[in-house]
Hints:
By secondary structure, the chain is an alpha+beta fold. Helix content is 29%, strand content 39%. A seven-stranded mixed beta sheet has the order 1-2-3-4-5-7-6, with helices on both faces. The protein is globular. InterPro entries: Acyl_CoA_acyltransferase, GNAT_dom, GNPNAT1-like. Keywords: Acyltransferase, Transferase. GO terms for molecular function: glucosamine 6-phosphate N-acetyltransferase activity.
Amino acid sequence: MEVHIGNDPELIRLAQGIRHQVFTREQRIPAELDLDGLDEASFHALATEQGEPIATARLTVKEDGSSTMARVAVSEVYRGAGVASAVVQALLQHAQNIGVTSIELHAHSHLKGYYEKFGFEFIKEVEIVGEHQLIEMRRQLARS
């Protein structure tokens, strides 16, 4: 498995394909909620297996140095194999490398413990998207 980080049009297209399968088809989240206009201004981690895209996550950096991690999605057959952890870890490292000061995310509430393993802290419950309760979590990053 390889993880690529970038924001070129082809990488974004492949990431959107995984997200469409996971969010729109499987989780029944409306496509317009996923395609929020931030893809071109964000960094995307794309995991591939033998050249095939299998997972993605997105990091949107703000002018003040804070950022938002979102759109973590793994193809069904690769779930439970550590693929999500690989893309999350890759984005955390990239964020550190480019001087990001903090990362916020909105995750499904049942993933609270998972993200705590990466150093994220629970902030509060937020909106319900589709039928999924989301929670806000945040991680501060050390300055290099």
